[in-house]
# Entry
Amino acid sequence: MTTRTVTQTWNVAGVLTDATTAKLSDPTAAYGVKRDDTDAVVVADGTDMTRISAGVYQYSFAEPEEGLAFTGYVEIVYGGETYYFAHEIEALIPAGEMAANYTELRKAIGHEMGLPGDVDLWTTDEESAVHRYMRSGLQRFYNAPGYVWTFLQPEDTIATVEPYSTGTIGVVDGVVTLATGTWPSWTEGALLCVNGEYYPVVSRDSDSQITLDDLTLDVDASTSYTLGKYIYDLPADFSRFDGKLRPRSPAYALWGPVIHATAAEVRKRLSDDPQFDYPLIVAIRAKTFTATVGQRYQAIFYPIPDAAYTFFYTYRVTPTMITATNQYPLGGAEHSETILQACLAAAELGQDRVAGVHAAEFERLLAASVANDRDHHSPVSVGVDHGLEDGMDDRFAERVSGDIYWSAGGGVTDWI
# Structure
């Protein structure tokens, strides 16, 4: 088990001097040291520190898990006054780790700026400058001119849900009561089909009650219905689709990919001709912006999926800032030196107001990183084109025109 140590000095007029008390305690008296990932208390509030020498105090604790970052506070009482000092205890990087990481980039930028080696001695303004240069460097790397990194194009899936129609309903002034069954968790935002008409659901009020956007609707009790979900949340780092959505199951392969459309087109079709069927088009819709989480997106389908389908898709990532807890930037070890030089070039420009040796080195390494990324992730083969199988209906040839599929001599097995 790894031991972590908090050290605090106390100076009076530049001379190390003993304090009245030195404890681990945050200003709210909630903890001495806590984990950054879960906020769990690791060292209790009010824990005394050990005096090492005049004005020097320490406390050591065992790390409950490897790779954790912590926040600690030291409370110093001297001359009847109380002072608090925050300590960011960074995650330790495993020995032999080659990938660029927050801890090493932070120290390297600080060194470039001429800051003390002990990060606890940095001022708030210096710390802000380090993070600003780190963010700028990462942006330079991620946004390589004229090239899209393969690691910014991950694959994911969207799994649609089967429509829900258990039991019967009655509607009074737009409030829908379910006689038997339980409204699914995804009900809010879905479409309710009753008597051949479709109504958006604005809220799930309970397991048996929902409210529609049409508060004038009345429907007799014991009426059948179908509830369909056509809106699906996309990953938090989603920016846009890169390519089409393709069905995961070979059973649906001949239906072809789901084509991208505008949100306006999907809304128009849902308004003009709502129906349940295999999805033909999909659009991206921005969710209402929330400053605490940033911009998020949803996929909206037409027709409303009539079954549980799983679609593969590739998307463009919106990178997020690395932190003491989330240490690693995108790209991995093969681009670590390029990332380092990108951050140092940003610091160099910010400090000296001129592009220097780090900028030149970054440009050289960036070209090499782009070449490596392109070469290492380019396919040697995209499969075998056997043409149409015997007995395959040739009308499907137009549906998949321009796409290569793998048949392996035994019918379509998957799309590639």
Remarks:
- The CA atoms of residues 101 and 328 lie 5 Å apart.
- The chain is about 20% helix and 30% strand.
